[in-house]
């Protein structure tokens, strides 16, 4: 039985999204009597978000599902400063042109998960550069900076971690928490926003914004953080053997995206179904109770549901069909990555890297020497092996049991 009465906090709790809540009794009461506007910030450091960001997007989805209004804040302004949270060094500075391009590329990821319309609970997408770049420096120092003490700022984990490791923390990054706090104040004033959500590493930044709103405007603001999502083996979620698991199709093929979820550790299936899908809780309980090879059916449900939400139903169906053809039938699925082989052929090591199985020639040589690379299911241990195909011929290239691609000559 949940301790909460509001649909919002009960939904967040039962789906595994709650880690920390400021003043839970007051927030629960507020969410039970009125539509609450809530926001999450995303810094556009790349042209796509990755599944590490998906947990925060799902927080906004739950807000909307519970009958409240979500705001997506694109950190076009804060990214120019750089969030030190969880970082060992300073972020590379991005030009305005690159930031605009990144934001444009990222927008669709939110449109597939959230409902954007003119209703009271319709999502909004706002760029904080609209106001941060208009701030005068003296004005910021005088009106906002006076509410922050160096003593307090030095206690936050994002700062302590860098200082304890004797790694430099620039004055620029030190200002990030001030700017994020100002975002909350601005959103409170202009949009009636009363709740900020984020990952557990954002707790200090969120508390700063709450205190700033109280000191300057006497506003009652709230914060919720979700748990840091790690896999059963303790690794931070969002990385695969090939790097980040991107949300955008142009950064990662849908088959690889689907396959990442299909390869989930048995111990993570139930938790990920709760966090990243809308599968009913009783059905999740049934699926996570499956044992042995039967748990694979739950993994397929997970892969299908997440891929359908992020990439669309057609992408999910194509990925599942490809997996069935590749694994069950031993054939070549249509959704596998394809490498066009030139008339003169291509060396095996180069093929592994060009199709995206390995990050470098050195890694390709190691994998081939280990016997992990196969052509049409036959191991080949010579990285210099020349693959030559006749016009129209196709062959299957595999790395391990779960990475497959098509070599083709037109």
From TrEMBL:
Annotated GO MF terms: ATP binding; RNA binding; tyrosine-tRNA ligase activity
E.C. number(s) listed in UniProt: 6.1.1.1
GO cellular component: cytosol
Free-text function comment from the UniProt entry: Catalyzes the attachment of tyrosine to tRNA(Tyr) in a two-step reaction: tyrosine is first activated by ATP to form Tyr-AMP and then transferred to the acceptor end of tRNA(Tyr).
UniProt keyword annotation of ATP-binding present: yes
Residues binding ATP: 239
GO term, biological process aspect, one: tyrosyl-tRNA aminoacylation
InterPro entries reported for this sequence: aa-tRNA-synth_Ic, Rossmann-like_a/b/a_fold, S4_RNA-bd_sf, Tyr-tRNA-ligase, Tyr-tRNA-ligase_bac-type, Tyr-tRNA-ligase_bac_1
Organism of this sequence: Croceibacterium salegens
Chief location category: cytoplasm
Catalytic activity: tRNA(Tyr) + L-tyrosine + ATP = L-tyrosyl-tRNA(Tyr) + AMP + diphosphate + H(+)
Chain positions of motif 'KMSKS' region: 236-240
Complex and partners: Homodimer.
Keywords: Aminoacyl-tRNA synthetase, ATP-binding, Cytoplasm, Ligase, Nucleotide-binding, Protein biosynthesis, RNA-binding
Keyword Endoplasmic reticulum annotated: no
EC class (word): ligase
Identification of the protein by name: Tyrosine--tRNA ligase
UniProt binding sites for L-tyrosine: 39, 176, 180
């Amino acid at each position: 039985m949940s301790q909460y009465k509001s649909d919002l906090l009960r939904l967040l709790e039962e789906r595994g999204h709650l880690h920390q809540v400021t003043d839970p009794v007051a927030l629960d009461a507020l969410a039970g009597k009125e539509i609450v506007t809530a926001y999450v910030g995303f810094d556009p450091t790349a042209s796509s978000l990755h599944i590490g960001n998906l947990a925060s997007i799902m927080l906004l989805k739950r807000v909307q599902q519970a009958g409240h209004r979500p705001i997506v804040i694109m950190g076009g302004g804060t990214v120019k400063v750089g969030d030190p949270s969880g970082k060992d060094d300073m972020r590379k500075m991005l030009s305005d042109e690159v930031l605009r391009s990144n934001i444009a590329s990222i927008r669709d990821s939110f449109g597939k998960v959230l409902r954007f319309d003119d209703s009271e609970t319709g999502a909004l997408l706002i760029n904080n550069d609209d106001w941060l770049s208009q701030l005068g420096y003296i004005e910021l120092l005088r009106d906002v900076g006076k509410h922050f003490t160096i003593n307090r700022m030095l206690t936050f984990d994002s700062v302590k971690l860098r200082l304890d490791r004797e790694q430099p923390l620039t004055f620029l990054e030190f200002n990030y928490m001030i700017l994020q706090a100002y975002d909350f104040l601005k959103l409170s004033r202009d949009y009636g926003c009363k709740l900020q959500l984020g990952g557990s590493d954002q707790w200090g930044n969120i508390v700063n914004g709450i205190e700033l709103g109280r000191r300057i405007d006497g506003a009652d603001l709230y914060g919720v953080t979700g748990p840091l999502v790690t896999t059963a083996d303790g690794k931070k979620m969002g990385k695969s053997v090939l790097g980040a698991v991107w949300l955008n199709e142009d950064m990662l093929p849908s088959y690889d995206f689907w396959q990442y979820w299909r390869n989930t550790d048995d111990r993570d299936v139930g938790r990920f179904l709760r966090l990243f899908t809308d599968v009913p809780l009783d059905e999740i309980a049934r699926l996570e109770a499956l044992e042995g090879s039967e748990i694979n059916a739950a993994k397929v449900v997970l892969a299908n549901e997440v891929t359908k939400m992020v990439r669309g139903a057609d992408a999910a169906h194509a990925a599942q069909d490809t997996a069935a053809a590749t694994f069950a039938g031993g054939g070549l699925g249509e959704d596998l990555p394809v490498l066009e082989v030139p008339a003169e052929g291509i060396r095996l090591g180069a093929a592994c890297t060009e199709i995206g199985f390995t990050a470098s020639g050195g890694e390709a040589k190691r994998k081939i020497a280990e016997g992990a690379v196969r052509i049409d299911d036959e191991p080949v241990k010579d990285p210099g092996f020349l693959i030559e195909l006749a016009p129209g011929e196709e062959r299957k290239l595999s790395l391990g049991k779960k990475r497959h691609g098509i070599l083709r000559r037109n």
